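EI: anyone free to look at a 44-residue chain?
SC: sure, send it
EI:
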Amino acid sequence: MSKHENGTMEIKEQEKTFNGFLKFAGYGMLGSMVFLFLLYLVNG
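SC: here you go
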């Protein structure tokens, strides 16, 4: 078995996936806030 060395693993795909998740979560939060604001205007 080879010895593991820290910092040698290729992580480009993991970084791309994580950045996509953050973008999705941000747009989801923004969409939820807009939806709640519009709901407030309709029921206000």
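EI: The CA atoms of residues 14 and 20 lie 10 Å apart.
SC: 👍
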